[in-house]
Amino acid sequence: MAPYESGDNTGAAEVDDLPTGRRKAARYVVPVAVVGVAAATIGLVPALADSGDPDLPKITAQQLIEKIAKSDVQQLSGTVKFSTDLGLPDLGGLENSLLSGATRSGDGSSADPSAKLTELLTGTHTLRVAADGPDRQKLSLIESAAEYSLIHDGKDVWGYDSKSNEVYHGTSDQDGKGGKDRKGHKEELPATPKDFADEALKSVDDTTSVTVDGTVHVAGRDAYKLLIKPKQSGSTVGAISIAVDAKTGMPLKFTLTPSSGGAAVIDAGFTQVSFAKPAASTFAFTPPKGAKVTEEDDQAQKAPGKDSLKPGKDSLKPGGDFAKGLGGDDFAKGFEGGDGFTVLGKGWNTIATFDTGSKGGVPSGSAGGDLGGFLGSLGDRVTGKFGKGMVFSTRLVNALITDDGKVYAGAVTKDALVKAANAAK
User: N- to C-terminal Cα distance for the chain?
Assistant: First the structure.
């Protein structure tokens, strides 16, 4: 069956009153708060799964969310196909270099997870994953002639890039839930259907519709489909479909389709999965002979100073965790904590804005020379009560940079950004 099917949701109950705000997901379980509020607000009217293959018992949206929350899969191994299509222009591979370079400095290791895992932001990838409780996980990015592995074994976190024969070594935090990057931030880049499902459920509030949308086979297992859709217009998110394993409650597949239609923006799903205990050797790692080993503490000393991360300085990287959540308040609140960042709107239409302090906007056309022509080809000039500016668009996240140096960004349409800029004027 297709990764996302609208189906007939007649009789499906909706989540209308879940509270807004950020919710911290546990590594293996959706927060209990989500379950409690869901039980109180979804209602008791059965949301029948559409007829299809497999033929599973009836289930409500409330029950399916509870099933995800109660899922406590500690041991698994499998293969995940991971595809992203943000609609970025073809830069001949330059985009990957820019994404990786943005998180590295000086002599940073190519095995640093904060650099390597950004490759997941473009294209289609094959991942092998394994877990044995909270203290042992392994994720391997399989490439045509190389492999990158991120291994958490007790207190040790190892990154190994076979292409460059480089190793990155760090330590996990005290609660044993993963490693940290060179700036002390936990490595939490979503990579599995479970990761994305946790983020999507954080965005569920009174601006969101949640229904059961039939059944599906994923990696040879029977699953229900949970469908999440913004009620508001103006969001670039069309729908989120989560295939939930009927037996364990673990998300097996995550698909985000844009409101503009077409291929999925994010499609992550298991092609093979086993819930047997992985062999202990899966998580054992010893640096290969001749490999260059970079220690976390050594690389931290080479990290850029905090002033370089402020708006208006050399980098426009916001404070806090960038783009937390897949939409709604969590997206914009990921910018909070950076100097000058504010949040406009609510729900799936929230927009983060800040002032770069730089006048003149983005150079374009002949006035900007070759650079201006290049940037002009990537963005669209817009005008409004706010003045003039340029919108840079992807299929999920859009950003408006005005000529007076203000930036408006969010998982919203170009028109929504212009409207926000006009209102703020």
Answer: 48
Count of Cβ atoms closer than 10 Å to residue 381 Cβ: 14
**What pLDDT is recorded for position 257?**
96
DSSP-based three-state secondary structure for 270: strand
The per-residue pLDDT for 277 is 97
CB 173 within 8 A of CB 6: no
**In 327-405, which ranges are E strands?**
342-344, 351-355, 379-384, 387-393, 398-402
C-alpha angle 261-267-269 in degrees, rounded to nearest 5: 145
Rg of the chain on CA atoms, in Å: 22
HSE at residue 8, side-chain half, CA atoms within 13 A, is: 4
Cα separation, 340 vs 335, whole angstroms = 10
Tens digit of pLDDT for each residue in 4-38? Answer: 233 334 333 444 433 333 332 222 222 233 233 33
User: Per-domain residue ranges for the chain?
Assistant: 1-303, 306-424
Return the residue matching tokens 């895992």.
117
* Residues 6+ positions from 144 with CB-CB distance below 8 Å: none
Nearest to 178 by CA among 161, 200, 201, 195: 195
DSSP run (H or E) holding 40: helix 32-41
Question: pTM of the predicted model, to two decimals?
Answer: 0.73
Looking at the DSSP assignment, which residues form a beta bridge with residue 115?
none
How far apart CA 196 and CA 82 sit, in angstroms, is: 11
The verdict on whether omega for the bond into residue 54 sits within 30 degrees of 0, i.e. cis, is yes
Residue 8 identity:
D
Q: Which CB contacts under 8 angstroms, 24+ apart, belong to 356-359?
A: 356/311, 356/312, 356/316, 356/401, 356/405, 356/406, 356/407, 357/311, 357/312, 357/405, 358/312, 358/405, 359/403, 359/404, 359/405
Please tell me the CATH superfamily of domain 1-303, with its number.
Lipoprotein localisation LolA/LolB/LppX (2.50.20.10)
**Can you read off the two tokens belonging to residue 5?**
């099917």
